[in-house]
# Entry
Amino acid sequence: MTEPVRIHIRVPGTAPMPALMTLVESIEAAGFDGAGILDSQMIGRDTFVILGQAAARTTRLALFPAVTNPFTRHASVLASAIQTVEDMAPGRITCVIGTGYSSASTIGRKPATLAEMRACIGAVKSLLAGQTVDWSGTPAGLSYASGRHIPVLMAASGPKAMELAGEIADGVLLLVGFNRALVERALDHVERGAKRSGRRVEDLEIMWAVRTGTAATMTEARRMARPVAVHWALRWQGDLLEHAGIRWPKLEVPDAVWKIYPDLSHAHDWEAAIEATSFVPDEVVAEVCDALGLVGTPEYCAERIVEMTKLGARNLYLMPFETFAPPEAEIRAFRDVIFPHLRAAGLR
# Structure
C-alpha cells in the first residue's frame, strides 16, 4: 500500500481571533492534516493562545507552533505551554523549535545559536517526558507532565543545523527548497546527525517546509512569489542556490528591498515588496520558484507533489506567501484540485 502524503498549512496570527478560528475550521474542513501557527511576536498574535483555541475548535488537525524559539520564551515556559495545549488535544500537538529569524530581527537581536538550540530542545524534551531539569542548581520538573509522548522537532535550513536536528530532536522541519538535489542533500545532513546518536533518518519525523502559492497562470503565481523568491535567494546565495543548480546574477540590490517591513518574506505590503524586487529578471525568479517549493497553477503543484513523494517527501508544511492575508486561494486549490489529484494517485 502506498504511504499517503500528509499536508499541513501555515496560519499567521495576523487576523483578529474570530477570523483566525474561522480559517482554522476551514482548513480542517478542506481536508488538511494539520496547521502550524506562526510564532513571531511582533507580527502575529500569541501562538499558544491561538493553538489552544484551535485545539478546542477542531477534532483531528495536528497543531504546532511554526516555529517557536529559545529566547522569547524560556525553555520551562515553552514546555509548560506545549503541555497545556496538548491537554486540550491529546496526540495532536507537536512542538517545533527554530532559531527565531523574524522573532529576533523585529526586536533587534540575532537568532539563537546552535548551542542555545541544543540546550532548549534538551530541556523541553526532558520536561515533557516528566523528568527533572537542573536550572542553575535548582532542579525542577513539570508537576503536570502527562507522560504522553509529545514530539519535539527542530526547524533547520543550514548544514550544521540539520545535523544537530538529526542528533537531538524527534524530527526536523526542513526549509531547504523542494527539488531533488536539495532534498537529497538535506537528508544526507540529517542522517549524519542521526548517526551521532545511534539513530537513522527513518527513526525521525521529517517535515518539509514548502513555500507555496497558486494562481490561474504560472506567470501570476511567479509574480506573487517574487518577494519570497528574492528573499530566499539573497539569504542563501552560494549555498542552496548552488546546490539547486541556479546561477544568481550579479545584481545591485536597491535600498527599497531593505526598507520592506519586517522583511521581503513577511512583507506587510505585498505589492510594494513585489515592486521592490523588479530588479531581478523574470527568468531568474522562475528558476528560484521551481527550486523553492510549490509555485504555479494547482495542477502544476499537484504534479510537483507527486514527483517529490518519489524521493520520500511525504510530510509537507505549506507556507503560503503572504503573512498578512489568509491563504484562501491555497485552501481552495488544495480542496478542489490538488487533494483530488493526490487521491487519484493513491497518495491520500
The mean pLDDT is 95. The first strand starts at residue 6 and ends at 11.
